[in-house]
Amino acid sequence: MPRDRRVDREVADLTPTAPPDPPDPPADAVRTIDTGTGTSVRPDTAVEGGTVHELSICHAIAGIVLEHAGDRPVRAVNIRVGQLRQIVPGTLVHCWSLVSQDTALDGSRLRVESVPARVRCAGCGHSWTLSAPVMRCGRCGGQDVSVLHGEEFLITSLELGEA
Ligand SMILES: [Zn+2]
After folding, report:
1. For residue 153, how far is its CA from the centre of ligand 1 (angstroms)?
2. Structural contact between residues 119 and 150, judged by C-beta atoms closer than 8 angstroms
3. What's the topology of domain 5-14+50-117+149-160?
4. Span 63-91, pLDDT tens digits
5. How far does residue 149's CA lie from ligand 1's centre (Å)?
6. Confidence of residue 32 (pLDDT cuts 50, 70, 90)
7. What are phi and psi of 133, to 5 degrees?
8. What is the Cα–Cα distance from 78 to 89, expressed in whole angstroms?
9. How far apart are CA 53 and CA 49, in angstroms?
10. What pTM did the predictor assign?
11. CB 113 within 8 A of CB 79
12. Mean pLDDT of 16-25
């Protein structure tokens, strides 16, 4: 019987090896990360490349997925995105539908799993999950804090049909 083939190791790691210095976001540029599919970014708030950024990411994902899928149809692409990546999952899903349209990936679903930002204080070793991007240790007040999780960008698995 035909069964979907699932490529279930980490397909590709798009996480930058040397994370760029995160610029201090201006207070009015805080973006809400929402895993819901109905998230929309109003055009007047999609500043500094907003949608273009997500479009180029989708093009990169599509290239990697096609490379791994060969001639098998792709049903779904599962990705994992750290919350520090400044990516709006709903926008990414929308851009995926644009990028995949009229290609071999037409009709495939993009599923985004959000990874909470986790950081550690070098001073005392305390680690915690960020609820807001404040890089200061809640225990000792130290600011020499390194990011443990939250900058992930992984294609975690592909769901493929029969060739
Ligand atoms: Zn500390």
Report:
1. 27
2. yes
3. hypothetical protein PF0899 fold (3.30.2320)
4. 999 999 988 999 999 999 888 887 888 89
5. 17
6. very low
7. -75, 65
8. 12
9. 5
10. 0.58
11. yes
12. 49
